[in-house]
Please model this.
Amino acid sequence: MPEYILYDVADGVATITLNRPDRANAQHQPLLEELNQAWEDAAADDNVRVILLRGEGKHFSAGHDTSGSPETRTPELAKVGGCIKETGLLELYKWEAKHYLGFSRRWRDIPKPSIAAVQGACIAGGLLLVWPCDIIIAADNARFSDPVVMMGIGGVEYHGHTWELGPRKAKEMLFTAQPVSALEAEKRGMVNKVVPLADLDAEARAMALQIAKMHPHALAMAKRAVNHTMDIIGQYAAIQSVFDIHQMGHASAYAQSGSMILVDHNAIKAASQKADKA
Model:
């Protein structure tokens, strides 16, 4: 049985809930693998017309769980003992290509409409969960941020920033580590709708139920049309290219500190506290 994900199907809607509220739904390997399995189950179930992704608790997701050593978060990486030699870089690349870039791309291309309902903080790795969704409904207290530049890396593994926010706002998000509010995200076209926090679940479900009434093949073709157009423009190739640049950041961080990320805990804590007050 899943430990970190709740899964339910009713009225043609598969509701996937991140269920690690004590850690602000921070993502470690078990949660990500359970989450991917839930997406796969929804994709394979003919009774599911729409997928609704939500997070339990105050925050949608605090991103990747960095409470432990990045080098030992998986058995594969533990084998190289945290040593970022050629073998270590390869293992890190393979792991992130599967669990971050790979999962996000898979979810984005599932031929069923998906909706993300976002409240509170959606930080860094949290963006990898919402950007693949077709529609984002945000509570009025939602905020989106990517403070990974503080860690010596140029941004999270799935580079949706430029596509979702436009180049200048994307640079501001990355350069300053300051969160983008729900209203600003809506203005930029990243969020479809902003609603009061108390109405978030009801509004997201109402939209899911409305879409579930449409013909499933027509929905799949409409989604394919938009996604394929974005790929022709270059989104797919660009995100892969930036993922490779991201891996260079890990090598640079290790060269400076012996760790695959540079963690300025004080700066990150200060940014988090400032975001909480926003």
Remarks:
- The chain has eleven helices and nine strands.
- Residues 3 and 123 are 22 Å apart (CA to CA).
- The mean pLDDT is 87.
- The chain has one domain: 5-277.
